[in-house]
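Lab notebook, entry 371. We have the chain sequence and a SMILES string for 2-acetamido-2-deoxy-beta-D-glucopyranose, and the next step in the workflow is to get a structural model of the bound complex before anyone spends time on docking refinements. Request logged below.

Task: model protein plus 2-acetamido-2-deoxy-beta-D-glucopyranose, output structure tokens.
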Amino acid sequence: MCAALGPSSRCPDVCLSPFSPAGMLLPLLLLPWAWGALDASPPVPTGSLTLRLLQTIIFHNASSTDMEGTALLGDLETHSLDCSTCEIRFLQPWAQQGLTLKQWQDLEKLIYNNLSNFIRMVNDLVEDEGEGYPFVIQFTEGCELHPNGTSRRFCDAGMNGEDFVSFDTDSGKWVARRGDKLTLKAEEILNYNQVVAITLQFLLRMTCANQIKSFVQHGKESLERQERPVAVVFARAPPPARIPAPVLLVCRVTGFYPRPVRVAWLQDGEEVGPGWWLNSSGILPNADLTYQLRSSLAVGPGAGHSYACRVQHSSLGGRSLLIPWEQSRPWGPGLVVGITLGVVAIAAVAVVLWRSRHRGYQDVGPGESSP
Ligand SMILES: *[C@@H]1O[C@H](CO)[C@@H](O)[C@H](O)[C@H]1NC(C)=O
Ligand SMILES: *[C@@H]1O[C@H](CO)[C@@H](O)[C@H](O)[C@H]1NC(C)=O
Ligand SMILES: *[C@@H]1O[C@H](CO)[C@@H](O)[C@H](O)[C@H]1NC(C)=O
Ligand SMILES: *[C@@H]1O[C@H](CO)[C@@H](O)[C@H](O)[C@H]1NC(C)=O
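Result returned:
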């Protein structure tokens, strides 16, 4: 827990802070980083890699609270924490490495106890400030390790989905992110506790980066997993009135991992430049920790151009996937026009037939039977 908060004692009227340094909470989930085992010369990961702890604490009322935590390395969930028991679950085969079983059990106990204190403290603060239930507090904290060995640290808390307080690792100060009384009070309380600030600074600056390096060693296989993209190209009618083109070519790329991908359209072998004719869904997650993306190209009626979707991804070993758009296949632009013309022709014939029959009926005199 990045918020380092004090004991459960009620605040006497005149005291600056209900949180004495002695009773401060250690940043709970940051603690394993302090114990992370490292081999002699750990490799620096080749791209930037982020270790992120997310925690959500829901305060239903003064006597009921739910807390959940997750640790993510890049986009891999490594640990989860359900604080009805504060049991840590290992979501990767290598996630348990770095600590002994006893150390993990001690950590669970420490989180459980400290969390209880934290919750009591928040309830006291909320009661003092006349804030109502329910509310949600979220923390995100961790670091991003760059290939050049530097790291960016972050530790932010939100309340009910809005920025609340942030910790500045350079100055070691908490900064209020809104101006209301509750937030300013929380900022004051947090900054009063120097021990917590120093600990937090150390954990975010040193331990976090070291822990990433350790995870990179243990979890090399998961982090370097490569899944090849599968791509198809198909045509679709453009949204009415939005795009002045008869056909939208869609390239659907899915099943790839890791996330970085490059998808481009080629017209007669030349990459199509940016413009209103291009659109992309952005990279979206699949349920199986692969990703997908759709890219569309609006093409004019002019015949004689060839189009292809080109996909570049690390799993393809330096080659790219090229999926040509085949005009001749069903639902190609030519066929769409053909079918449209066909439908118009049939409709015209039907109208002519109907009108001639209709006129025929009108011509039929009373008493005569129609054929
Ligand atoms: C946190 O938990 C540990 C282990 O149970 C305990 O020793 C420590 O005093 C607790 N700290 C706070 C501030 O609650
Ligand atoms: C507190 O909230 C919990 C869960 O929403 C509910 O079951 C419980 O009755 C509430 N207690 C009080 C005192 O309101
Ligand atoms: C290290 O790399 C990061 C990200 O690429 C960059 O922002 C930072 O300025 C670099 N720092 C140094 C000292 O080169
Ligand atoms: C781009 O695609 C998105 C959905 O994929 C759609 O909502 C949006 O209208 C499209 N933009 C244009 C200019 O067609």
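Notes for the group: The longest strand covers residues 49-61. Worth checking against the assay data. Residues 21-223 form a domain with the Murine Class I Major Histocompatibility Complex, H2-DB; Chain A, domain 1 fold (CATH 3.30.500.10).
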